[in-house]
Every structure is written in C-alpha cells, then in structure tokens.
Amino acid sequence: MPARHLPLVRSLALLAAALLAAFAVACGDEAEAPEEPPEPPPPTATPTPADPTTLTVITHDSFDVSDGLIEQFEQEHNAKVELIAGGDANEVVNRAILNSGNPEGDVLFGVDNLSFQRAVKAGVFREYESSRRGDIPTDIRAQFGDSLLLTPIDYGYVNLNFDPAAGEPPSTLEELTERQWRGKLVVEDPATSSPGLQFLATTIAYFGEGRWQQFWQDLHDNDVRVELGWSDAYYTHFSVYGGDRPLVVSYTSSPAAEFFFSEEPLTEPPTRNVIPSPLFRQVEAAAVLEGTEHADLAGKFIDFMLSDAFQAQIPETMFVYPVIPDLELPEWWSWADVEVETASIEFTAEDVDRWIREWTEIMRR
Predict the structure, then answer these.
(1) pLDDT digits (tens, 9 = 90+) for 71-98
(2) Most exposed among 96, 156, 175, 301, judged by the fewest C-beta atoms under 10 Å?
(3) What is the pTM of this model?
(4) Which domains does the chain have, with CATH numbers?
(5) DSSP structure string for 217-256
(6) Do 186 and 227 touch, CB atoms closer than 8 A?
(7) How would you write 328-351 as a 3-class SS string?
C-alpha cells in the first residue's frame, strides 16, 4: 500500500473501533434492566384510643357539681363518670353495707360523722390518702378519727331558722318549751332525716345524757311538729313558705341560699339564723369502696373533689362549707358566714342507734 494512504487507513481504523465501542456500550445499556424505585414503607397505624373507664360514684341526693367540671375530669382521665343518688347519709351507708364486698360503685360520697362508724365496722371502705389531705384542717379530719378510710369533703351546721315576721326569736333551747313558742316549731325525724339527727345530737351535746330526754318530752308537750324530711318541714310548714310555723330546723347556710335564689333583688335574706347553743358539726366524706376494680381512678376522683375548682363550687351547688380553707367564695355566701361554737360530743354507732330509739319512744307517747 502506498505510503501516502497510511494516515487515511489508520484514521478509518480508529473511527471503526470507536463506533464499535459506542455500539457495545449502547447494547449493554439496553440489556441492563433499569432499577425500580424502592417501595415506600407501610403507613404507621394510628393507635385506637382505649375506651373510657366507667367510674360509678354513689352520692346522697343533695350532691351537685357543674357538668363542666365533671367533663374536665373525664377528659383528663379518659373516664366516664356515672352518678347514682342513693338517698341521705344514712341511706347511702345502708346501701354500702348491704353490698359490702360487691359494691354498686367505686366511690361513695355523703357518709358523715354520725353514720360512718357502722360502715367502717362492716369493712366497706379501703384506705386512700389524697395528696391534699394535709390541707384539710386537723379538727375536721379528727371527726373520722383521722382515718385514711374517709376523706372529708365539706361540712355544715344545723340550727334553727326563723321567720322575722314573727317578732323576736328565742335565744336558748329552753325557751322552745315555753308557752309562747307552743305550736311554732317544726323539726325532722332523726330516724329518717340527716338534719333531724344532727339537731338531736346538738340537743344531746347541750343537755347531756340523762337530761336531753326531758327536753324532747317538753317539746312534745309544747306541740312540736315532726316531719319525715327537711323538704316537707321547710317548704310546707315553715311560715316563710305559707306554713304556720315560724321556726324550723334547717341549716346555717339556708338564709344565704334564700338570698341566692330570690327572684327579686334583696338587701338581706328573708330568714334568720338562730343559734341558741353550740351546734353539732356535720362533716361529709368520700371513700373508695372495698372491692372496686378501679381503685386508682377512684382515688383520683377524690383528689378532684378536693381541687380548688370543685371546693369553690360547693357553696353554690350544695350550700355547705368547703373543707379547703382560704378559697375565694361568692359574695352572697357571707350570709352563711356565722359565728358558731362547735358542740363537743363523743359517741359510738351504738349510741346513735340508742338516741334514735329513745327519741322515737318519747315522741310516740
């Protein structure tokens, strides 16, 4: 081959080699399958919220609290609160004793310092120590022997309420047996009424064992009227509501309640407190029921009842005094802020049963 053609041949060879290499690469790219994109991870399952736990609270008939507060407790603790009204303090205790070991509910509220001993003997409560127990005054906790079985929630006093349209009220218990007060007092039966039993305890503390019986005999002879419950005594026979009795056994907070519920503007309540002696102080407590399957949640509900929000509502919803001191209370509640000397009296469950039995015998003569 002539020498002048060598560069051309060499160039053609190089071009052919380059084309072959390019073809080989192209064929290789076509042979390899393209990588598939990675599959996304499966979506994380959203956890299903647990069903709320039903907490059953047995209360006396006067228990009341705003729906908003109950709903707040339910939301905070994933709970559904079921309230069962069980009568007065004696009735709720009787129900708890009848169902001892197999309770109707988880929490009982309304047992008081006149009825608790029977329940304690029957073993219907289990101990619980609230984180706010130390905020409750010692003398109030002492009403239950400072036992962890019961947590005080509120307290109140029963005395005489008077219709000022009748003139001047009596100033001592003894005056109630005098002729000028004949047929002018209505009381409640201590066997069926919590305020009736508290007033009986007040008279026993004042006169003492062996003397209180004569006082009640004298009241009987002076035409005292006895009703089974507070509502009939107050709203049917009290002269403020159209009855013929200007004196009724009621609460020291009743004048404040009259002021609060009045449909017309008032400058003072239409009734007056008459405090003729030291008064028995009723303390109401809550307890976790033995046998509950929700003891932890039951304890949290007792804590809730001692919260500032719940305690501050007590005057407006149940018209008694909260056990947590120094709360900001409604201005109208000042009508219930009366000076009271608390009666000192020691007793057993057997004493209470005997009081009621002896009282009943006197009033049936």
Answers:
(1) 999 999 999 999 999 887 778 888 899 9
(2) 175
(3) 0.83
(4) 53-155+281-336 (3.40.190.10), 157-280+343-363 (3.40.190.10)
(5) HHHHHTT-EEESSHHHIIIIIBGGGT-SBSEEEEETTHHH
(6) yes
(7) CCCHHHHHHCCCCCECCCCCCHHH
